[in-house]
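Many introductory courses stop at the sequence. We go one step further.
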Amino acid sequence: MRVIGLMSGTSHDAIDAVGADIVLHDTVIQVRLVGQLSRSYPDDLRSELIAALPPGAIDMAAVCRLDTAIGQAFADVAAAAQQEFFGGTADLVASHGQTVYHWVSDGAVRGTLQLGQPAWIAERTGLPVVSDFRSRDIAAGGQGAPLVGLFDLLWLAGRPERAAALNIGGIANVTVTGAEPVAFDTGPGNALIDAAVELCTGGTEHIDRAGVRAARGHIDTELLETLLAEPYYRAPAPKSTGKELFNSSYLHRVLDPRVPCTDDIVATVTALTARTIADALAPLRPTEVIASGGGIRNPTLMAMLGAYLSPTKLRTSDELGLPSAAKEATAFAVLGFLTAHGLAGSDPACTGANRAAVLGSITPGAAGFTLPSAPTTVPRRLTLAG
């Protein structure tokens, strides 16, 4: 299948797309990346989206507007990818959509909401669309996140060491291979770093570009210990979280209003991200950590993380042939492929679900949608072709 994978993560900054030729041979999924592109949200749409996220409060009219506008933005990216990667032809679109709320209560996930109406994508491209991946795993008793666990396990299968796949987006998550695999959100990735930058600049800046502010600042050890007292970090896996917890209001509650906001705050929350990732991985004893996501573009964060993880090796997914910026979109392209073939896209050991489930909903394309023949074997490994 020629699949277009679409993803926008918890940083809400852009829509990433990949084109992937995917083939299942016996128990091996072979993926050849044809291309990748990324398109930023229009400024007005991103502003409305950010305002709608926790702790913001919006009405149903705003939800409707966002569902339509995000769907149209995803449709634009899908159409561009279809033309650029496949000359106007493809077989399937797999769209994660944009997470706007992840409902966690007493450690259990009750629901999740990804906006980006898939009908706009199907109408624009003429292709069938697989979307709403997370809800089925939640209905089966799982966390619905991180949902790249099965992809990570297939991709890292056969590595000679116990590997941990780490994604640092707005929220950081890990998948650790082994006889008893596990996957979970470790806590904030860039979420509190971005919130600190916005706070310290009065909203004129939104990210710590290249980690410059964190590098200039000094870690406030007292504040760091206060932040580390958050109960989420000690909750057992599987577990998931989001900006419902780790947002600007969270930072406001913790910070002393009498202390001016400086780069020390940015340095401290950067250290928090690195420390909580390392602490979460320590009892699992991986021998290598393979990082991806926007956080790897922050050299200060990566230096802190490397120091906290030492002597465990820290590398990036690019070193294994998977471009970091394309990893999550590639994962959802594969999940869409699995859904189209009637194959489960989750691993209960990773999400805590009662069973492995076929994920998502299918929106037919212009020619409808005919399910391919169901394979007789279950995938055990994933390879990336050059």
